[in-house]
Structure to design on (787 residues):
């Protein structure tokens, strides 16, 4: 709900209040963002004035060594104001919201209030994706500011999603002057807070180890999270958090910020000399500027903000609900996703139709619903050194083309999907030989490549149009149900042969706009296809991509121990229904770590489940275990997909739970990274349950391979069994060790506050059916059903 009275503005969500007003000087002063303040004027507008009087900064004289705004307002010192937007030149020396170079070379800006408008409409952006509502109604406040000396107009847009405790912001700059101006920076949001006691949490990483949470107290100076890769990047995800010192998973004040953008981004948290905090987020100003012609407008990406005084859990639930309801869209928004088998780690580039069909038949037998052919099906693509850009079928591998393979997969009873990488080109390709000017590279200079490939110049509309038609032709050539859209490198030697010299600093942003245009066109042409985003794993996991594709490949690392950390990181700001996760081979191809098959499944089941291994080479025992996994997953799939995800513990022990929307069902996991000697006791906890309801908690008994116990087999065997010998292998086929059974019927309150004590873990003094085999990389899944 948006309230206004005499240039005071209050944006209320279910549990938060955001408040600012216009100073007599015309500047928008931020007053408050935090837990709901109750009745701030809904029934009695004059209460707004009283609340404003209580919250505004009191000023009588300027402090020493500070700039006074003007003779008319000498007490107004912008350096120490909490503002809705800021700029350089009038005394505010903190991080600016907007920077423009005027035709005379000056940089001073002074935007002042002109008008405000409240509507229930949220028009689509001209060039960018944004949030939306299914019914088309979003409470929308537009505040218009003007720089009268430069004839520039700045719009600040606020969108309120009351039920999700989310407020979105964006900005738009219009040049009403008669000369071009150079825009150096336009942020999407600015949040000024009167205190300085905050910790900035960012999610850093690299290929195969994305989304590691890093906490930095910001007591003075500036902490920056940014990407300069041409993508949102695995180095620094655009989702960040600000929290009061001491905030925990379930208690304390915290803010979550994200950006609906997939390119270079920038998040900065700064504490000034007076203990005030400023946070800004938007397009990374490094390497960016935009030449704005007369009457031309520039729109900044939309920013997402949420606040919780219930710790990180409350914040995460708000963000997860918001992304599900107001970012993800289209045919697959609310549809559970098929279980797939991806060919990549099973075959890499070495496959033909026969090999793929053998894999597909095994996949069908274990219950898989979608077969995906990954990289290697086009051009002369036998390695990553050639053929990107040549989207024609390799008939040596697939003599009948995509259609014959797709038809055969469908005859088996599965859907068919493919991999594409439309934004890339190899120099060894027909496309590059025909159009070298379509590659993003500096003419006459050597180019630094990534993964033996170059980036197509999507700042050039002709390139976007060509590639859109090329992929359209591919998708029309067969009955294709799924597309994995990859982007396997970051930018280097950033240059668009299409743009003139004075616009080269627009290249990275215009590239992203070209990508969005193609994604929108393709998804509108093929609404029935399930698209999955990918960028060497999680190099472009962001709300921009999720505005077109309902799920993203979270990491190329399928090792379940690393994936547990990665998926926990994503869960702070994204729902697990957007996180694609696969069960792969052991030893793992990225870490060479050996892990149990059930642990690989347990971790992947909380995301969008798939398999990425050669089923044709697996033992009958492994195939039977996978068959049971898939059968169980199908029974619980709606809980995983639609439910709320809770982090209960992180670290050496990972404890997760997903609870159905009606809170009648829940699935929880306990995963241990490394065993600690002689620790027998363990508890399993619940979250999000009905306190008064009674739940049956149980596990699926898993018998253990006798070889897991090593030489200890000889303590009970009547004859000596040599480790690794043929008798040992034969014995393991017929003899397994019992697993523990957990069966409890207790209240939701008991589960959430006390937890259930589990069977004792093996600790070197004995083993039977009442002992829990819980060694390195072990895990358990527990199921809860309301009685």
């Amino acid at each position: 709900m948006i309230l206004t009275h005499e240039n005071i503005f209050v944006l209320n969500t279910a549990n938060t209040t955001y408040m600012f007003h216009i100073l007599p000087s015309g500047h928008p002063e931020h007053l408050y963002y935090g837990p709901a303040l109750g009745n701030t004027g809904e029934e009695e507008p004059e209460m707004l004035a009283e609340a404003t009087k209580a919250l505004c900064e009191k000023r009588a004289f300027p402090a020493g060594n500070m700039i006074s705004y003007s003779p008319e307002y000498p007490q107004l010192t912008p350096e120490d104001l909490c503002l809705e937007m800021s700029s350089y030149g009038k005394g505010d020396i903190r991080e600016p919201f907007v920077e423009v170079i005027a035709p005379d070379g000056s940089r001073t800006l002074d935007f002042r209030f002109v008008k405000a408008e409240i509507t229930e409409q949220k028009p689509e952006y001209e060039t960018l994706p944004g949030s939306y509502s299914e019914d088309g109604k979003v409470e929308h406040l537009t505040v218009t500011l003007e720089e009268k000396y430069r004839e520039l107009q700045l719009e600040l847009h606020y969108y309120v999603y009351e039920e999700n405790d989310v407020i979105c912001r964006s900005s738009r700059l219009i040049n009403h002057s008669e000369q071009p101006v150079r825009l150096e920076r336009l942020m999407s949001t600015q949040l000024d807070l009167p205190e300085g006691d905050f910790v900035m949490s960012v999610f850093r990483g690299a290929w195969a180890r994305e989304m590691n949470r890093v906490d930095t107290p910001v007591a003075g100076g500036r902490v920056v999270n940014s990407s300069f890769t041409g993508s949102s990047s695995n180095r620094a995800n655009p989702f960040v958090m600000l929290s009061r010192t001491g905030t925990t998973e379930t208690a304390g004040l915290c803010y979550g910020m994200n950006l609906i953008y997939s390119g270079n981004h920038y998040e900065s948290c700064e504490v000034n000399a007076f203990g005030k905090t400023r946070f800004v987020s938007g397009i990374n100003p490094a390497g960016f500027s935009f030449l704005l012609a007369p009457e031309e407008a520039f729109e900044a990406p939309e920013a997402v903000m949420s606040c919780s005084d219930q710790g990180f859990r409350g914040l995460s639930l708000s963000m997860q609900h918001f992304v599900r309801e107001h970012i993800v869209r289209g045919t697959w928004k609310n549809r559970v996703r098929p279980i797939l088998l991806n060919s990549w780690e099973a075959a890499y580039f070495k496959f033909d139709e026969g090999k793929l069909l053998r894999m597909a038949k095994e996949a069908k037998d274990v219950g898989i619903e979608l077969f995906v052919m990954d990289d290697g099906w086009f051009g002369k693509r036998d390695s990553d050194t050639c053929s990107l850009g040549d989207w024609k079928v390799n008939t040596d591998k697939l003599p009948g083309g995509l259609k014959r393979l797709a038809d055969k997969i469908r005859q088996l009873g599965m859907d068919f999907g493919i991999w594409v990488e439309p934004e890339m080109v190899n120099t060894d390709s027909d496309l590059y030989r025909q159009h070298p000017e379509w590659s993003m590279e500096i003419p006459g200079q050597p180019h630094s490549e990534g993964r033996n490939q170059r980036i197509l110049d999507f700042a050039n509309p002709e390139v976007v149009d060509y590639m859109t038609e090329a992929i359209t032709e591919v998708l029309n050539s067969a009955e294709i149900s799924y597309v994995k859209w990859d982007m396997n490198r970051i930018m280097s030697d950033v240059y668009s042969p299409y743009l003139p010299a004075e616009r080269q600093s627009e290249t990275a942003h215009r590239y992203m706009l070209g990508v969005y245009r193609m994604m929108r066109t393709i998804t509108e042409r093929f609404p029935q296809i399930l698209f999955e985003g990918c960028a060497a794993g999680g190099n472009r996991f962001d709300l921009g991509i999720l505005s077109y594709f309902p799920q993203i490949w979270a990491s190329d690392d399928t090792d379940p121990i690393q994936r547990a950390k990665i998926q926990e990181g994503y869960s702070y700001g994204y729902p697990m229904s957007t996180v694609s996760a696969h069960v792969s081979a052991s030893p793992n191809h990225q870490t060479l770590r050996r892990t149990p098959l059930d642990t690989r499944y347990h971790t992947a089941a909380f995301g969008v489940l798939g398999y990425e291994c050669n089923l044709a080479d697996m033992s009958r025992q492994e195939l039977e275990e996978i068959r049971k996994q898939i059968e169980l997953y199908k029974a619980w799939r709606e809980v995983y997909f639609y439910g709320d995800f809770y982090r209960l513990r992180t670290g050496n022990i990972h404890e997760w739970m997903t609870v159905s929307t009606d809170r009648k069902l829940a699935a929880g996991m306990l995963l241990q990274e490394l065993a600690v000697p002689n620790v027998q006791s363990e508890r399993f906890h619940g979250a999000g349950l009905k306190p008064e309801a009674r739940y049956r908690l149980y596990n699926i008994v898993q018998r253990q391979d006798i070889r897991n116990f090593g030489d200890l087999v000889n303590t009970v065997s009547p004859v000596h069994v040599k480790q690794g010998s043929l008798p040992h292998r034969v014995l393991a086929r017929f003899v397994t060790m019992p697993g523990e059974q957990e069966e409890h019927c207790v209240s939701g309150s008991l589960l959430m506050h006390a937890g259930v004590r589990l069977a004792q873990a093996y600790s070197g003094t004995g083993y039977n059916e009442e002992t829990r085999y819980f060694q390195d990389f072990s895990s358990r899944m527990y199921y809860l059903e309301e009685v």
Observations:
- Residues 465 and 518 are 8 Å apart (CA to CA).
- The chain has 14 helices and 40 strands.
- The radius of gyration is 28 Å.
- The mean pLDDT is 96.
